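Q: I'm building a small set of examples for a reading group on sequence design. Run inverse folding on the following structure and report the sequence directly after it, with nothing in between.
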């Protein structure tokens, strides 16, 4: 497994993961947790999320091999999930229901499914089909730093961006995510058709 650093890949993977995790869009959920007196540890949540996401980045491919699914097929499936997520962000509709079981706020719902959820897992393996694993890990780490800052200073972040600012950013990243989803689907679909 060759490792090489590419700023362009790190930036691209960071933006994709940032849009999928959507920690800024989750600010109202985080505030409502605090208002319900549900305590959580920002550092612990970010660290656990990082470990889970990186572990899945390595184990995920082995799981695919177990089910005899190649990375290109999974990337197309992941692209479809990202497409649906982008539609949610742009048109403000709920397709994925947040039906996770109750529990401690740090693990559920913060770590799972808010930060390290099904969409994040799918995105990681989709990115693996296109980017070097080192650059994806760096992008995950950078996202966890952002997650930590938002969780630690949630009211400051909300005040800084404002509700309208967060709304605009959500729409903007939704459009970026939509474009990336289309590229993922078309690029990997072409290679799949070519291998038939």
């Amino acid at each position: 497994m060759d490792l090489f650093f590419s700023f362009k890949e790190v930036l691209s993977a960071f933006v994709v993961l940032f849009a999928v995790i959507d920690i800024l869009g989750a600010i109202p959920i985080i505030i409502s947790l605090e208002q319900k007196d549900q305590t959580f540890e920002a550092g612990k949540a970010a660290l656990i999320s990082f470990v889970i996401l990186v572990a899945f980045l390595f184990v995920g491919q082995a799981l695919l091999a177990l089910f005899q699914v190649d990375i290109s097929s999974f990337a197309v499936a992941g692209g479809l999930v990202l497409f649906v997520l982008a539609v949610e962000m742009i048109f403000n509709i709920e397709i994925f229901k947040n039906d996770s079981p109750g529990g401690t706020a740090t693990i559920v719902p913060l770590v799972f499914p808010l930060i390290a959820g099904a969409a994040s897992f799918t995105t990681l393996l989709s990115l693996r089909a296109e980017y070097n694993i080192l650059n994806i890990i760096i992008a995950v780490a950078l996202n966890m730093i952002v997650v930590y800052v938002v969780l630690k200073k949630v009211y400051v972040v909300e005040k800084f961006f404002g509700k309208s600012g967060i709304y605009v950013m959500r729409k903007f990243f939704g459009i970026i995510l939509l474009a990336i989803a289309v590229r993922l689907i078309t690029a990997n679909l072409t290679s799949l058709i070519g291998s038939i």
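Residues 52 and 179 are 27 Å apart (CA to CA).
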